[in-house]
Write a structure and sequence with these properties.
The complex is a heterodimer of chains A (355) and B (134).
Chain A lengths: L2 H10 L1 H13 L9 E7 L2 E6 L13 E4 L17 H7 L4 E5 L12 H20 L4 E6 L1 H12 L5 E7 L12 H5 L7 H8 L4 H10 L2 H14 L4 H14 L7 H13 L9 E2 L2 E2 L8 E7 L22 E6 L5 H4 L7 H9 L5
Parallel strand pairs in A: 3-4, 3-5, 5-6, 6-9, 9-10
Antiparallel strand pairs in A: 1-2, 2-4, 7-8
Chain B lengths: L1 H7 L7 H22 L2 H35 L5 H33 L6 H15 L1
Classes of the chains: A alpha/beta (355), B mainly alpha (134).
Chain lengths: 355, 134
């Protein structure tokens, strides 16, 4: 085909492609399809147990509970069939639980980390232990979920926590120049009380804007160009739609917890300095004795690597590993390479420690 | 060109050159923007924007809330604050029930366990009974 003809053909097909493109972008695709059963609820929180796929004698005796961030849907861990961390772990024989925080409403504006850790997590874990029949358990915390998991591990070290996995954990806020969010929420520029007076909870749309604005060109331009350029590739389109469905499904962050995140952590860095009090109890990191795996995404703009390293020297755990992996905040667990890199590493670390 | 295509085994991409140029430009732009958003100037600008919006919308928001509250009171209907208070109480009740449920489960498990009689403690009791009988 002559170049001129090819260009004309390309341009002629443009309106039709644009129409289809818009439909694909707007479409919501089925996600989180792995079968699960509800075993516990409290307010909006739910504890799900995924239906095991291996017989009991082939399963690990130590169950694993996954704790995700409080301002995103947790089904990123079970994005779509064939590309799901949940599916992968079930096939490896884990008794798998997911703590889904649900969507906070106006009645939850006062919910704080204190409540999430000491009221919700303690009860959910108690239920998980009862259902699984195991006094020991493993916990995986991702993003803000890793803050919750760390706080729990420090406040309840004798509760049976055997293995702690922290993914992209924003725990240390010392390097303020390296953390873009720390710039934005600096007390000189951001009035947290004014925002919460207006909204009650921190709106999901604002959180979404914040996350995307860290890499504006990637998120607002390149993301769509990637779809446009690969529009003829069904695998890419399917993966893009699943991820877009999750990204655009935003939920608010409870006002009390948001204020603590900004004031106690981003501004005062209390957690890493062993000065963070939850309901009068000190979150003392030295209390953490569980085996520890910390996973860092080297290209993470939301939780830069500097936020997750220092925890390694502050805990009492003797069995601990820091695992650096190329990729972004979400990409390391939900990207196309996750099943070849992050998932096998986590599973390989957890397997001998789950007997 | 057609021969070249056949040799390479690839279709001719009419916008390939444009795409390459576009990608180079966007990569450079992306790097610049990542640096730009990580500055005090950007933080100050977005902070001011948000502050202005909140200050401007505050009187309207308060007026709407006040009017809504009055209307609900006149209609003898519960306000948002009433529902919030109720929801908090329900959550507290849920927690109490959850604790009760866990306590019952524990008792059930204890009851289900077989009772093991300790021979060492049982024997002296038997002997003391005999002594008493004498």
């Amino acid at each position: 085909m002559e170049p001129a003809t090819a260009v004309v053909n390309e341009l002629a097909g443009l309106p039709a492609k644009l129409g289809e493109f818009t439909q694909v972008v707007k479409a919501r695709v089925p996600i989180a399809q792995t079968p699960k059963e509800l075993v516990w609820t409290l307010n909006k929180a739910k504890l799900w147990r995924y239906v095991p796929v291996l017989p009991a004698e082939k399963r690990h005796s130590v169950p694993l509970i996954m704790v995700f961030a409080i301002m995103n849907r947790p089904y990123i861990l079970d994005l779509r069939p064939g590309h799901s961390f949940v599916e992968f772990m079930l096939q490896k024989g884990y008794d798998l639980y997911l703590l889904d925080w649900g969507e906070p409403g106006p009645e939850d504006t006062n919910l704080k980390f204190d409540d999430y850790v000491l009221d919700y997590m303690t009860r959910a874990i108690r239920k998980m232990k009862s259902v699984s029949g195991s006094e020991e358990f493993s916990m995986l915390g991702w993003c803000i979920g890793a803050i919750l998991a760390t706080a729990y591990a420090a406040l309840r070290p004798d509760d049976g926590l055997k293995n702690l996995i922290l993914l992209t954990a924003p725990l240390d806020f010392t390097d303020r120049k390296g953390i873009t969010f720390a710039h934005w929420v600096d007390e000189r520029f951001f009035d947290v009380d004014k925002v919460l007076d207006a909204f009650g909870n921190m709106p999901g749309e604002l959180i979404d804007y914040g996350a995307k604005a860290l890499k504006p060109v990637e998120n607002y331009v390149l993301n769509y160009l990637k779809l446009w350029d690969n529009f003829d590739n069904p695998q890419v389109v399917e993966a893009w739609q699943a991820m877009n469905t999750w990204v655009t499904d935003n939920i608010p962050l409870a006002g009390g917890a948001f204020r603590q995140l900004i004031v106690d952590l981003y501004r005062q860095n209390r957690l890493i300095h062993n000065q963070w009090l939850l309901r009068g109890e000190l979150v003392y990191l030295k209390n953490i004795r569980a085996n520890l795996l910390t996973v860092i995404a080297e290209g993470d703009h939301i939780t830069p690597p500097c936020q997750s390293r220092s925890i390694m020297n502050l805990v009492s755990s003797t069995d601990k590993e820091l695992f650096d992996i190329p990729g972004g905040h979400i990409g390391i667990m939900a990207g196309s390479a996750a099943h070849r890199s992050t998932w096998p590493h986590i599973e390989g670390w957890l397997d001998p420690r789950s007997k | 060109m057609s021969d070249q295509q056949a040799t390479n085994g690839k279709d001719y991409d009419p916008v390939g050159a444009f795409r390459e140029m576009r990608d180079n430009y966007l990569d450079a732009w992306a790097k610049t923007m990542v640096e730009a958003v990580n500055t005090d100037a950007y933080a100050k600008a977005t902070g001011m924007l948000l502050d202005t919006y909140l200050s401007a919308s505050s009187p309207f928001r308060e007026a709407v809330e006040k009017a809504m509250l009055q209307t609900l009171q006149q209609l003898s209907m519960p306000s948002r604050a009433d529902f919030v208070s109720l929801a908090e109480r329900v959550t507290h009740i849920e927690m109490k029930l959850d604790d009760l449920d866990a306590g019952l489960e524990r008792i059930e498990k204890l009851l289900a366990k077989p009772i093991i009689v300790n021979a060492a403690t049982a024997a002296p009791a038997k002997r003391s009974k005999k002594k008493g009988a004498k």
